[in-house]
Amino acid sequence: MGMLIDPFEELRRMQERFNRLLEEFGRFPEVKEFRVTMPVDVIDEGEQIRVVADLPGFSKEDLEIYFEDGDLVIKAEKKEEFEEKKGEYLRRERRMGKVYRRIALPAGLDIDAVKAKYNNGVLEITIPKLKKDRKAVQIE
């Protein structure tokens, strides 16, 4: 059995070395970590599909959800708030910006009956499956 390789592991190591180098020279902003910015779970619960996405730091008004070409699209955008603060940042990791996920879903979903709720940084979307009509076929 072959080894499972993370193609971004070497990038992460290089980034850590680069961040340590910058910190040795003083107060430089840390390079943003290379990672998936919106982890999601997609669960088939029999009668419905449930999508759970982690979006900490956003408000409900920052989120946009829609369907396009059979995919579920989740967007979140947090604009930078410019306010006067005393002092200077020694480290600033809480960034503003956009995150985007496009999730392929199975066919046969009732997208007109979708429900979404957002609580404590977790977005939960439920999409009911269409009822399958069964029709008997007369054999001649």
UniProtKB/TrEMBL annotation:
Keywords, comma-separated and alphabetical: Stress response
Annotated ranges, domain SHSP: 31-140
InterPro entries, alphabetized: A-crystallin/Hsp20_dom, HSP20-like_chaperone, HSP21-like
Organism: Archaeoglobus fulgidus (strain ATCC 49558 / DSM 4304 / JCM 9628 / NBRC 100126 / VC-16)
Keyword Metal-binding among UniProt keywords: no
Family listed: Belongs to the small heat shock protein (HSP20) family.
UniProt superkingdom: Archaea
GO biological process annotation, one example: response to heat
Name of protein: Small heat shock protein (Hsp20-2)
